[in-house]
Predict the 3D structure of the following.
Amino acid sequence: MTLDSAPVREPRPRKAKAPAKPALKKSEATRQRILDAAAFVFRRKGYAHARLSDIARKSRTQTSSIYYYFDSREAIVFEVLRIANEKTALYVTNAMAELPGGASARDRISAAIHGHFRIVLSDNDYTSAHMRIFDQLPDKVQRHFLEVLDRNAGLWRELFEAARAEGVIGADVDLSVLRLLLLGMMNWSIEWFKPGRMSVDQIADQAVRMLFDGVGPRPGTETAAGS
């Protein structure tokens, strides 16, 4: 075989690199570091016992410097909770976005449950801090975020109404009670979940099964003793 007749090997195409995220300005990076530290401290100490000096030490900054970015401890916790709610909504909507078009209401609710469990049990300081301190917050902050939570709950209302229309939720079920029970159960899982025995998605599968099929044995299956 001559050089002229040798097969030409095309160069392997290089994988396209994901566009680099723009670097944060120094002030933005410091502000984010303070928020990350605040979420860490609030999660572990609660609202009442978390001091600005704790946040400053964790964020490697001076306590007095925090006031350049936030007016008060209340302003910091306000931002921590805002981020926590955004993260939760994003996990839920992203999980639903993975479904094919025309997915059933049951499938959409299942995806939403998986997304919610994934963020709640992700060991994320923001969502964990939200769970830990919400009942300790000043009334003004609580009222604001109760409104935020109610707006976010609109997605679940729509999902349950669609499920009822498709005949998978009985007409005699109070959808508000169902929503509050489901969200309360998912949020409380942060208190008892221990990695190892079951994965987060397996726990989500159990929640979906119980929600739609109950806890009785399915036809053709054997009951097994559990702990």
Q: What stands out?
A: The first helix runs from residue 26 to 45.
